[in-house]
Structures are given as C-alpha cells and as structure tokens.
Design brief:
Blueprint: H1 2-34, H2 37-47, H3 49-66, H4 74-108
Helix pairs in contact: 1-2, 1-3, 1-4, 2-4, 3-4
Length: 119
C-alpha cells in the first residue's frame, strides 16, 4: 500500500493543485462577469483546498514520502488511513464548491453578463 501511495502521490498532487487553482480562477471570472456571489463562494471553497492541504495533510505527505519499503507496516497503513480521512475533507470542499458553482450557473442564467468594458 505504501509503495502504491508513494508512486501515485506526485502525479495526483500536481493534478489536484492545478485543478483547484483553475476552478478558482474560473469561478472568480464568472463572478466578475455576472456578479453572482455563488461563483465567488464556489471559487473560495475550491481554493480552500490548498491551505487545508498544506496545513493538515502536508505533514502526513512528508512522513509517508520519507518512509522506505522496509518501513511499510501497521504504522504506514495508519498514516495512509488518516490521510484518506483528510482527503475526504478535501473532496467535501470540492463537492460544496461544485454545488455552489452549479447553483451560480442556474441563478446567473437569466441575467446578462456584466462587463467592465461596457458603459
């Protein structure tokens, strides 16, 4: 289990961070264009994944990445299970962000887009 986690983590970390930033930027642009606050809420929830990851999950990531194959066992399994529980919090934040963004789409659909370029 430890080896699989160590092999998949670097790829997943890059992808998830990129998607969180991209989702936040898209939500912020949608807010700017429509002034629908649900887009800003969705963007903030999506971006909240990053500090949560650094503060709550980062130390566990560091510890798991520092283990060798010979150290795999009950302790590394417990760390991975703890990591999984914290990862579920991130998934929950992403789910709430997605719901806010979808609700923003529904509510903004009947309004013309705002443009700072129009007078």
């Amino acid at each position: 289990m430890l080896q699989h986690w160590q092999e998949s983590f670097p790829r997943a970390a890059r992808m998830q961070a990129g998607l969180a930033v991209l989702g936040s930027v898209i939500g912020a642009v949608a807010f700017w264009r429509t002034r629908q606050p649900l887009f800003l809420i969705g963007a903030a929830l999506m971006l909240a994944n990053l500090p949560f990851t650094f503060v709550a999950i980062g130390p566990i990531n560091t510890e798991l990445l520092g283990l060798t194959g010979e150290q795999a066992g009950a302790a590394s399994r417990a760390l991975i299970e703890r990591w999984g529980g914290l990862h579920a919090v991130r998934a929950g934040l992403a789910l709430l962000a997605t719901a806010a963004l979808w609700a923003g789409l529904v509510r903004a659909g009947d309004r013309p887009p705002h443009s700072a370029l129009r007078k």
